Write the structure tokens for this entry.
Amino acid sequence: MAQELKTTERRAPSKLDGGERTQSRPVLVPRTDIYETEDNVVLLVDMPGVASEGVDITLEKRTLAICGYATAQHHENYRQIYAEYGAGNYERVFTLSEDIDRDSIEASQKNGVLRLVLPKAAPAKARKIQLKMA
Amino acid sequence: MLVSDFGRIGFDPFLEMRRMQQELNQRLSGMTTKAAQEFPPINLWMGEDSVAVTAELPGIAPDDVDLTVRENTLTLTGERGSPAEGEKCVWHRRERVYGNFSRTVQLPFRVDPEQVEARFANGLLEVELHRPETDRPKKIQIKG
């Protein structure tokens, strides 16, 4: 039963724009953890095989798009006899629910995991209005 | 009312039903796709006198993986720590797996434990194992 449920959850192609791709490489949806602390929203994205140069992050309004381009692996004189994962590029799009301070977003890639720290925007400060004396 | 009345006489059919429902839910909750997937996923590659194992280990430092070879088995063990330990946080999504892992791979032939190369880059582990010299198939010439 558990065997049957091993579906292709990660192999699902992401639909960014609906158009067909020019590259025949599969596009995978990376597994992601998202947690929120008092000041930040932190994303951890698993993208094995992607070097720090291969990461592309764009934030447009509230849409955060993450793309990872894996470096091609060549196995000369080797043929594949068993496979549990497929290599490919990664793509995932999130819609953020909070206002983000765009200028201080931090991103780092280590051991195939992208860590994205999105600081929450400071709430608009309450302003007291003084009444002018007539 | 009805439930509490039954409770007073020592038998509550609704309690029993709720308990059964809870039990079923617990069993079904473990059957998600995430729980069923083995970690780490591996690929096996066959060469002429060697075999290569590649595994996806994102977020794990090379020192945190232990590799052991015995005859024709390769075992990968290690631990993947939770990222936000001790931090006060609210989880929005939790799709990555944490904890200890261990996987044993049976290789198609006995390997030489002295001739193992392991490389680790960007969360991808690559282990190349060679067949011992004495075990390699020998070509026999047929005399005419």
